């Protein structure tokens, strides 16, 4: 490969995952979430693949993200849900973008006739209308002339089967729906995220709203037939033999206990390799895992090849699907005590080229 660092996205994996989610949705529509540039995979490309595979709606966080998709020719129903006060929603009206509303004040600030989704806070206590204000919001929406496409909420612990909050949030959601109906509304409903789409069919309602599972990363404790779509790769740029007793990288945190061959790889924390992985991970090259020695630097890491052959230009996989034994984004996350969402989303970086394979690439 000619790039110093590349994220390669498999669009057929995206299609496989969305088709699986659509099958699990059992008749509910699939709204595929492509916020944060498709969790680092490319919002436009993921949206097109998802729509090909059975999704019928697309969701993003901000109006800017939604406008960018419209400008690239995505014509499916498109929802955005988190913008700052004073945002000019005229662009949403012009481009047929649906907007989430969590208060009567937000509703009143929108251009006339703009389609809305009303968000009720059922216990995540983040975005959403507090239950005490929900009757006012639904009555205001019924009077407003805005088409109310749907009502929705977000689950806090769907990835923890049996957690008491799941049933509590579902109950509040159903109560909020009854209030919306009493106000004269007839909204679609969406509550299920990736984990709920995969494990809680009773919460699918009219639309499911998967995010991370679209990208092949499993939010559930049990195995699922999801295929990770992102591979992060680079190549060896320099090979040298290090004698026993030589140390590697800043701080000399690792010292060779025997003669060994080191391969220099031109990626570092500026390219999405967390410095906190130093001494705690390996890369895949020439059919084996190779431990990374010493600290992760801004632009480079050093892998230990022992007595194996390695040549400048040999391809290195930092993480991938895991099918051949290579590390995965989930493995990185587990090592760091974080979630794989953070790993893949963090790969959208200026020096990391993004490429695609599969149908439509």
How would you portray this structure in words?
It is a single chain. This protein is an alpha/beta fold and 361 residues long. It folds into two domains: 205 residues, Alanine racemase (TIM Barrel, Alpha-Beta Barrel), CATH 3.20.20.10; 128 residues, Beta Barrel (Lyase, Ornithine Decarboxylase, Chain A, domain 1), CATH 2.40.37.10. The protein contains eleven helices and 19 strands. An eight-stranded parallel beta barrel has the order 2-3-4-5-6-7-8-9, surrounded by five helices. A five-stranded antiparallel beta sheet has the order 11-14-17-16-15, with no helix packed on it. Strand 6, helix 7 and strand 7 form a beta-alpha-beta unit. Helix 1 crosses helix 3. The model has no long low-confidence stretch (mean pLDDT 97).
Please give a handful of descriptors for the protein shown:
361 residues; alpha/beta; TIM Barrel; Lyase, Ornithine Decarboxylase, Chain A, domain 1; 2 domains; 8-stranded parallel β-barrel; 5-stranded antiparallel β-sheet; 23% strand
